[in-house]
Amino acid sequence: MLNLIIYGAPGSGKGTQSDLIIKKYNLNHFSTGDILRKEIVDNTELGQYANSFISKGQLVPDDVVIGMIANKIDSLDKDKNNGIIFDGFPRTVNQAVALEEMLKVRNLKTDLLIELIVEEEELINRLLLRGQISGRSDDNLETIKARLDVYENQTKPVTAYYEKLGKYKGVQGTGSIEEIFERITQVIEQTI
Ligand code: B4P
């Protein structure tokens, strides 16, 4: 069993690398961003509520995303669970504390947080490029800058939390997708 957090700034490639990691290690993929976007597309009440934050580059309130992740964990078939990738969660220290607690009471734990390290100019370029095709309400320059501010102020402290737990590993997130995946694989192999 391998429970992994893939962490990084907006556009650092969390979703991109998660797709490769889940295939190689046969893991469940819990992406709070994907779950919220599905709610937005389905125009549910939760989707409308979430979009009022996402379109401004703000975080969706902790209680909403924490509840979503708890439901996902409880929906797993325990006998067939090889592990989970948490992608884009936790994004605040509050979420990190809640995640560790909800795993503990279910006799589970996180093994590793992998940060994808990418400089700001590259992040902005990637997200603007994606914005040309994604149709996402948050891939425009103004919202990208707001997301990067939120990341600096609210999400960054999550790394110190996992450093203290001895579970933090940083990986350079620039280069080809395959090169980055190779770096991530090396870190995972040192852990399992
Ligand atoms: P997310 O869906 O998590 O969005 P992201 O940070 O933009 O994505 P990611 O880092 O996965 O980037 P990707 O691989 O796609 O969240 C969106 C919003 O939802 C948040 O801003 C927030 O409002 C809300 N939300 C989500 N989780 C939440 C939580 N826990 N709490 C509160 N609110 C929450 O890559 C980006 C682009 O780069 C892609 O176009 C990709 O093709 C490209 N790319 C990837 N790797 C590359 C490489 N090596 N070289 C060049 N380009 C690359």
Distinctive features:
single chain; five-stranded parallel beta sheet; 192 residues; alpha/beta; 14% strand; binds BIS(adenosine)-5'-tetraphosphate
Describe this structure in words.
This protein has 192 residues and is of the alpha/beta class. It contains nine helices and five strands. The protein has helices at residues 14-25, 32-41, 45-54, 62-74, 93-104, 120-134, 141-155, 157-164, 177-191; strands at residues 2-8, 28-31, 83-87, 112-117, 168-172. Strands 2-3-1-4-5 form a five-stranded parallel sheet. The longest helix is centred in the middle third of the chain and has 15 residues, at 120-134. The model has no long low-confidence stretch (mean pLDDT 96). The structure holds BIS(adenosine)-5'-tetraphosphate.
> How confident overall, as mean pLDDT?
96
Largest sheet: 5 strands, parallel
Q: What integer value in Å does the Rg equal?
A: 16 Å
Number of strands: 5
Return residue spans where pLDDT drops below 50 for at least 5 consecutive residues: none
The outline comes out as globular
Query: How is the quaternary structure best described?
Result: single chain
Give the names of the bound compounds.
Answer: BIS(adenosine)-5'-tetraphosphate
SSE string, helices as H and strands as E: EHEHHHEHEHHHEH
Beta content: 5-15%
Helix count equals: 9
Main-sheet strand order equals 2-3-1-4-5
